[in-house]
Specification:
Blueprint (H helix, E strand, L loop, with lengths): L8 H7 L13 E6 L2 E6 L5 E2 L4 E10 L2 E7 L8 E2 L2 E3 L6 H13 L1 E16 L2 E15 L8 E7 L11 H11 L4
Parallel strand pairs: 4-9
Antiparallel strand pairs: 1-2, 2-3, 4-5, 4-7, 5-6, 5-10, 8-9
Length: 181
């Protein structure tokens, strides 16, 4: 990822407030009560902006009784640990997203074994949904680090690194340690 296309936290938050001008015709947008909530509406062509949550997928990949975690090399949570995961692309399923993100961030191929849970979050970028899967490693070669990961490794229940980033990861790891996954 190049720095010249990355938004600051303030820019991302401002975008989540709605368009100033219509992306369809360029006319000013105003706030109006539409479909039971305030939304941005074009004054000319009546385009309505729906600010939807971002959808991401992550995987708790296991191998020999240990889970794969990576240390984040970027914000949010730079320096913290989490499962491989990321935002869905328009042309992929959530499962494909989890598989792709794991490969990109770790070098490992996984097979999804089950859905763990679906989580919601709010942060400076707006609302989002994380679809958390369980998986097992089926191939590939573990990378020492990548653009998104400073470090990566497998950890047993008694050797989890700290801090763990993202509530979805904290909750999933707690269930795993308790034997509920």
């Amino acid at each position: 990822m190049t720095d010249d296309i990355t938004l600051t936290a303030e820019e991302a938050a401002e975008l989540r407030q709605g368009f100033t001008y219509c992306p369809r015709c360029g006319s000013p947008m105003v706030s109006k009560h539409v479909y039971d909530r305030m939304r941005r509406v074009c004054t000319e062509c009546r385009f309505i902006q729906f600010i939807d949550p971002k959808v991401s997928a992550a995987v708790m990949a296991e191998k020999n009784g240990k889970v794969l975690l990576l240390q984040r090399a970027m914000d949010p949570g730079r320096g913290s640990w989490c499962f491989p995961g990321g935002f869905m692309e328009i042309d992929e399923t959530p499962q494909e997203t989890a598989i792709r993100e794991c490969k990109e961030e770790s070098g490992l191929d996984i097979k999804i074994t089950k859905l763990i849970d679906v989580f919601h979050y709010e942060d400076y970028r707006g609302g989002g949904v994380v679809i958390m899967y369980a998986g097992r490693v089926v191939g590939g070669t573990l990378k020492a680090k990548s653009e998104e990961a400073k470090a990566i490794g497998f950890f047993g229940p008694d050797e989890l690194p700290e801090p763990i980033e993202f509530d979805s990861n904290v909750e999933t790891l707690a269930r795993w340690v308790d034997g509920k996954i």
